[in-house]
Design a protein that fits this description.
With 192 residues, the chain is of the alpha/beta class. It has one domain (5-188): Glucose-6-phosphate isomerase like protein, domain 1 (Rossmann fold). 53% of the residues lie in helices and 14% in strands. It has 7 helices and 5 strands; from the N terminus they run H-H-E-H-E-H-H-E-H-E-E-H. The chain has a 5-stranded parallel beta sheet with strand order 2-1-3-4-5, sandwiched between helices. Helix 1 (5-20) crosses helix 7 (168-188). The radius of gyration is 17 Å and the shape is globular.
């Protein structure tokens, strides 16, 4: 017998909560906060990238970290979503390959000490992997918001946060919660 909408909702919410309670999610958030605060104090840039829903999360993260965390009289975070310059993305995809759309931007804008946050539910998005590879060559701190066991992405990340789920909706839910948690914490608790 099919579940009622109420039963399905209760199950879905509980599964999402269970993912969020994984101890290494909280530990990963603490490490990301430290990396982001260090980047802000050193005037470094924090880059974001992802595909599909994760591209929207990338844009959202860049906006929230860049704007929501502003505290009068304090240093601001420098943020850039590599998913946003559509004409540049299409030019790189057309002239080189879709796998290079973020890596080429990292090569142009990234410097040692910057931070890059790659977002991939599967952990296997070729263009996010390439961006992280180029970031590592430059001496950037690499962070991954990942799911499905971490895929190929986890070993490329100094700070991998792997949501313990194979359900893309739960993975994306947790990525959004982590985004809002980071932005609120950096605004409320870590203003420098």
């Amino acid at each position: 017998m099919a579940e009622s909408p109420g039963q399905y909702t209760a199950k879905y919410v509980q599964e999402t909560i269970d993912c969020l309670k994984a101890p290494y999610v909280a530990e990963g958030i603490s490490r990301v906060v430290d990396a982001m605060v260090r980047a802000r104090s050193e005037g470094r840039t924090i880059f974001f990238c992802g595909n599909g829903g994760s591209a929207a999360t990338s844009s959202h993260m860049s906006q929230d970290i860049g704007k929501l965390t502003i505290v009068e009289g304090k240093k601001r975070f420098k943020t850039l979503s590599l998913t946003d310059p559509v004409s540049l993305i299409l030019a790189w995809a057309n002239d080189k390959s879709y796998a290079e759309i973020f890596a080429e931007q990292v090569k142009s804008h990234g410097t040692k000490g910057d931070v890059i946050i790659g977002i991939s539910g599967s952990g296997n998005s070729p263009n996010v992997l390439r961006a992280l590879e180029e970031a590592r060559k430059l001496g950037m701190t690499t962070v991954g918001f990942i799911g499905m066991g971490g895929g190929k992405m986890s070993p490329l990340c100094d700070i991998p946060i792997v949501v313990p789920s194979n359900n893309m909706q739960h993975i994306e839910d947790i990525h959004h919660i982590m985004l809002h948690l980071l932005a609120a914490y950096l605004r409320d608790e870590r203003a420098a």
